[in-house]
User: What shape does this take?
Amino acid sequence: MAAGLQNVFDVPELKRKLGFTLLIVIVYRIGGHITVPGIDVSRLMEWFSTQQNTVFGLLDMFVGGGLQRATVFALGIMPYISASIIFQLLPPVFPYFEKLQKEGEEGRKKITQYTRYCTVVLAFIQSVGIATWLQSLGAVTLDNTWIFRVTTIVTLTTGAMVVMWLGEQITERGIGNGMSLLIFFSIIDRFPGAVFQSIEMLRNDVIGIIPMLLVVVVMVAVVAGVIVMTLGTRKIPIQIPKRMVGRKVMGGQQTHLPLRINSAGVMPIIFAQSIIVVPATLSSFLAPGSWLENIAGYFQPNTNSYAFLYVLMIVFFTYFYTAVIFNPVDLAENFKRQGGFIPGIRPGARTAEYIDKVLTRITLPGSIFLAAIAVLPIYMYRWLNVPFYFGGTSLLIVVGVALDTIQQMESHLLMRHYEGFMKKSKVPGRRAM
Assistant: This one.
């Protein structure tokens, strides 16, 4: 492990990517502490102290506490994620977007541009809702209502655009997925404060020693489970026959296709979280007691209906995102062109059906695991009255993103014949690194 870390600084490209990512993260965290003008932060934080187990507490976790401080980056990356979900759902419904998907790089550029426009619209709508909500709380120090609304809407919408740009820069020029990394650093930014707050609660007998020990045990179990589910794979044997290329004999080897149990990573939880906060955001536009506010009541994290809907969304988005990033038909065609085949399975359509069948089966336990981890904080808070941010969702995202980032760094090292972070893998079904 130590040798692997040393090798990181011996690869100029990897060192440059890590330095650029760190610079972007610093800019992101600085923006996460600049408050929107005209806000009484003390009043807002006092209100948030009672909202750890609500939608607002969940959303604040994903933006690193930016919402309770009403910072310029209070919306975080969530509008961009919501827009991405929309344009991933559109191709099967609208032929125009399906055509763009098949146009290659140019089509993807157009979809990315449309996603950015949609992000602006969503950020504007959420900014209007947040401005109205802040006024209803009495957390505004400006006397002129319209000046405050315009200033807040412009500031928050612009902040969301900057966060979107920062995430794209990390993806293109840094290391790892920009969206996931920004959420990763937003979550770990709150961990030190959460630890100190838990210690204070333990000292004041708000939390007993046994519940706190149980929380620690659950956290360790969740981390271990996330690592196993992230690294676990199902190997499908692939036979590549020998063929003549000029005077040389090529091929003639056995390999395998590794299918990950959790191919979607942490994205299903992020997608589900982006969708499930929409009713609460929209209800802020209407007067108290409106029909939309009544519907939003079913989406409160302290209700069983929320847990049920959340589980369904996560299972759906796990299958959906896996289908987006993994196409068995294209994979089967590539095998057929190379002369490869799965022993006992005919090339072409039968191979695609077999891969899809295996992927569907192994994705089910992965989706159930994600759903169980996501709803764990709800019942931990209900039964043990422990801080919500010690729940499985935050740990899942932190551990999952950390593993993905380490694997990307590992691939950079191995491509340049450096020793990786791990010499041998102890996880069944995964080759040694």
